[in-house]
Write a structure and sequence with these properties.
mainly alpha; two-stranded antiparallel ribbon; 10 helices
Length: 290
């Protein structure tokens, strides 16, 4: 067995155990469904959906449905929690709507992108290995659970709270983040679709104010979700605030910005216009003014 496969065997139980810990903590003070903590059930389903779709994906050696599965997991599990929760209050419906809108938009965008490209080269070395490819799907289950934790805990809480200033501030933060992400993605898609821009990098629109404005929007909207959820959190449920922290760490330290920056440096590094762009443009937070 190759070293990478042995490492994958170690990573798998760790990712599962972290999910179990999150499920236990977020379930404290939460609603019960079918004799099980509703939040814990949600986390378990998030993992299970990934494992089910992994099987045909591995057999067919395709990653085509990876991103779409992640988005559908957000949608299906959040809908299920809202349906099973005994406390269907305004805050829960607000969080439900925000998660569904975000997941549907992102899922459609990512699916169209990979359908157009035909493949995602990030998976080239992973697909042939059962254990490494399985880990990618398992980690997506953890990603979904961590990211949606604040919303899921609030929706499944046995102690609902009426809408308040936290809901207003959180919604405005989510709205701003969502708008930034949508606009940034649209600008880059239009840029890449223009044959005249082949081999060039985008530095216009929001991309003139941040090298990764879509990620800034993503982080901001999940901060908004966490703010909306704040008033209902208690005890171990405060672990749900890991949601925006996890998103930030993931995008800025692990799979987002570092990989894209490395790829961009390899492609355009040393070019005067690119080096000037990097020098004057913040990596994440939008620059205000000129």
């Amino acid at each position: 067995m190759k070293k990478a496969d042995r490492d994958a065997l170690v990573i798998f139980p760790v990712v599962v155990l972290i999910g179990l810990g999150l499920a236990w903590a977020g379930s404290q003070g939460g609603a019960i469904a079918f004799g099980l903590p509703l939040f814990g059930l949600a986390v378990g389903l998030a993992y299970l959906i990934q494992w089910i779709v992994f099987i045909p994906s591995f057999l067919g050696q395709t990653e085509r449905y990876f991103d779409l599965t992640g988005s559908l997991t957000y949608i299906s599990v959040t809908l299920l929690i809202a349906f099973l929760s005994p406390s269907r209050d305004a805050r829960s419906f607000l969080l439900l709507a925000l998660v569904l809108i975000w997941a549907a938009r992102l899922g459609i965008f990512l699916f169209r992108r990979i359908h157009k490209a035909g493949k995602d080269d990030r998976f080239d070395d992973l697909k042939p290995s059962f254990f490494r490819f399985l880990n990618v799907w398992t980690i997506q289950g953890l990603w979904v659970s961590f990211t949606a934790a604040a919303a899921w805990v609030a929706i499944s809480s046995a102690n609902p709270a009426p809408l308040d200033a936290f809901a207003v501030v959180g919604f405005l933060a989510w709205l701003a983040g969502f708008a930034i992400e949508v606009v940034a993605d649209a600008q880059k898609s239009r840029f890449n679709a223009d044959p005249a821009n082949k081999g060039r990098f985008i530095q216009s629109g929001l991309w003139s104010r941040s090298r990764h404005p879509n990620y800034f929007g993503e982080i901001l909207l999940w901060i908004g979700v966490a703010v909306i959820a704040l008033p209902v959190l208690q005890g171990w449920q405060w672990v749900a605030l890991i949601s925006p922290v996890f998103v930030t760490i993931l995008l800025t330290r692990i799979s987002g910005i570092p990989l894209l920056e490395q790829k961009a440096d390899k492609k355009w590094g040393g070019q005067p216009d690119y080096e000037e762009y990097k020098k004057k443009t913040p990596v994440l937070i939008l620059r205000l003014g000129r």
